[in-house]
Input
Amino acid sequence: MIPGREEIIDILKRVKDPETEMSVFDLGLVRSVDFNEVTGKLIINIDFRRRNPSCAGCVPIAWLVQKKITENLAEEFMKFGGIKSVEFIDK
Output
């Protein structure tokens, strides 16, 4: 079973940015969530561009924060039986 709209929103509200403790939903990081029924792949369009620091020394820290967010999102979505994999695209 794949998550419905309300379940997706609940997940986005549960997953927090480790820096700010704000939800991914409140930060507006996720632009869309699509599911390919044939492959079982959930495709999440996530927008980290506006959160990338201008300081070159801060970029590796931002990558770690982004990695943690995507790992937490994937973990939450993988709890649904119909989802075989989660892919993130940043457009």
